[in-house]
Amino acid sequence: MKPASTRRELPQALPLNRRSFLCAALAGAGGAAQVLRGADSPATAANRFSEPARELPLCDDADVIVCGGGPAGVAAALTAARAGARTRLFEVHGCLGGVWTAGLLTYIFDFDKPGLTAELKRKLDERDARRQKNPGRFVYDPETMKLLLEEMCGAAGVKTLLFSPVVAAYRNGQRLTTIVTESKSGREAWRAPVFVDATGDGDLGAQAGCGWDIGQGRDCPCQPMTLNALAVVRDAAALGGFMSFYPDEQPTHGTENFKQHLEAVEGFKREIKRAGFDPSYGHPTLFHVRDNLVMVMINHEYNIKPFDAAAVSEATIRARAEVQRIVRGLRALGGVWEGMQVVATAEQIGVRDGRRIHGRYTVTRDDLIAGARHADAVARVTFGADIHAASREQNKTETISHGGFKTKPYDIPLRALIAKDVDGLMMAGRCISGDFIAHASYRVTGDAVAMGEAAGTVAALAAKSRRLPHEVKWTEAAEWLRKSGLGS
Ligand SMILES: Cc1cc2nc3c(=O)[nH]c(=O)nc-3n(C[C@H](O)[C@H](O)[C@H](O)COP(=O)(O)OP(=O)(O)OC[C@H]3O[C@@H](n4cnc5c(N)ncnc54)[C@H](O)[C@@H]3O)c2cc1C
After folding, report:
1. Hey, which residues does 344 pair with through a beta bridge?
2. CA of 36 to the centre of ligand 1 (A)
3. How far apart are the CA of 344 and the centre of ligand 1, in A?
4. Secondary structure element (H or E) that encloses residue 300, with its range
5. Closest residue (by CA) to atom 21 of ligand 1?
């Protein structure tokens, strides 16, 4: 959707009564100061700039506003719209899908669930865009995914605004009422009764004043970031031995299936070393996307906070150089690597650890060990803890740990999707309420979609009945999902 057409939908600019709003957070996109045309710069302390207050156009036409268009946000927006809520979806990048598309992930875990996950698989199959058809994990084509998500959101009536980061949030007392986006159209305010934070990094929750955690602590011993890339090769079949794949049964750690995957990883790593490189990710992975197209996941960037724009920029630039260096090195080996060439690096470096917004329940490591069950379960997670090394040193000895325990399938309760400190705000995907270890498990995309679907349903029911999300019983939402055919 072009921003210009959305602009036409904006009603006449209404003045915001600033006194009625508590400015909960002014943390903008990168905090960059914007100089107003024709305005004098006010006097400031050294290294500070006081930005003059402004009146913004205010749009008040949505029942549900979803921030972030990744797997969780798309699922939330689609479901809210299908439940009859007027829904707006804001996304920073130029496509929907988050790590699926802007992040060029190409691999999906824990997708063997009812509802939207089943619909997405069917629609990918109709477009011949899915390989290795294990019901829970498979390779998909990211360009097809982009178009599919846009078409599905369009058909459901979601009003999508791309290139539109959410940069501020305002409350009236405890209740979130208004967000601000900043795009080429300038700063714009948007009001709704219910919001969903699906930014992955918990931007909206933090802007609204919620408590949050990150990594193993605020100084961020965090999971590393990874910049994925697509490459073409002469003959994908010739790379078979180096290509990660999971045969149709569940590739549980320690089983024969998983051994085959590890052998492929080790073989690929040996080839990278033969080309003269020691990859920053000790578990380099190749996935066969289609024909002569492969996905390459070969780098780690350690201890970067996703909301530190300078650090993320440096990490992205370093990672892109490493990917190109290694692929050039492989190509120089000739043989099966002859002609290998990067065709696209991800628009967004893949972020594993972002803010975890405090909710009315916190999913913990103990839940994974016990296989927790909840009456308000919105998703059952079957994926174990996947903890990537926190430093280059650790990467040398243990690239990925599974926490030293066996995860039993466990439930995510609706309460973990409802903000504790701010009313009218839900979370879905990576930024729900959980501890470091639990997050290392439930963050995968099958669970993000299931959470988004639940958040979208509850948000729509709450908005349409003038209730807050925590006043909606999960049984009511589950019943709506069942009747609509979505949850079956
Ligand atoms: C390198 C890597 C490998 C992974 N491997 C797998 C795998 O093989 N299989 C699997 O299933 N999962 C995997 N994961 C995990 C999974 O991809 C993510 O955790 C998942 O994408 C979570 O979905 P999400 O919607 O919560 O977040 P995201 O996919 O991160 O989506 C968040 C969206 O919000 C947008 N956004 C962010 N801030 C703002 C803002 N302020 N305003 C507006 N929009 C905003 C982003 O641009 C993005 O589109 C991997 C993750 C990484 C990083």
Report:
1. 230
2. 34
3. 18
4. none
5. 99
225 CA to middle of ligand 1, Å? 11
Residue 411's DSSP bridge partners are 380
* Burial class (CB within 10 angstroms; exposed 0-12, middle 13-18, buried 19+) of 468: middle
Question: Atom 38 in ligand 1: which residue has the minimum CA distance?
Answer: 199
Cβ(383) to ligand 1 under 6 A? no
Q: Rounded to 5 degrees, what are φ and ψ at 244?
A: -70, 135
Instruction: State if residue 192 touches ligand 1 by the CB under 6 angstroms criterion.
Output: no
Domains of the chain, first to last? 13-28+56-214+411-484 (3.50.50.60), 229-345 (no CATH)
Could you list the pLDDT tens digit for every one of the 488 residues in the chain?
A: 333 333 333 333 333 344 334 333 333 333 333 444 455 666 667 889 998 999 999 999 999 999 999 999 999 999 999 999 999 999 999 999 999 999 999 999 999 999 999 999 999 999 999 987 788 999 999 999 999 999 999 999 999 999 999 999 999 999 999 999 999 999 999 999 999 999 999 999 999 999 999 999 888 889 999 999 999 999 999 998 999 875 544 445 555 566 778 899 999 999 999 999 999 999 999 999 999 999 999 999 999 999 999 999 999 999 999 999 999 999 999 999 999 999 999 999 999 999 999 999 999 999 999 999 999 999 999 999 999 999 988 998 889 999 999 999 999 999 999 999 999 999 999 999 999 999 999 999 999 999 999 999 999 999 999 999 999 999 999 999 888 877 65
Q: What type of residue sits at position 215? A: G
**Ligand 1 center–CA 99 separation, angstroms:** 4
Task: Compute, in angstroms, the gap from residue 475 CA to the centroid of ligand 1.
Answer: 28
Reported in sequence order, the residue ranges of 119-228 that DSSP labels E, i.e. its strands, are: 130-131, 138-140, 159-161, 166-172, 175-183, 186-191, 194-197, 212-213
Contact 399, 478 (CB under 8 A): no
> What is the CA(209)–ligand 1 centre distance, in A?
22
- The set of residues, in sequence order, having a beta carbon less than 8 Å from that of 335 and lying 6+ positions away, is none
Cα–Cα distance, 72 to 79 (Å, whole number)? 11
- Name residue, tokens 């600019």: 13
Q: Is the CB of 201 under 6 A from ligand 1?
A: yes
Cβ–Cβ under 8 Å, residues 68 and 98: yes
Whether 279 is in the pocket of ligand 1, judged by its Cβ within 6 Å, is: no
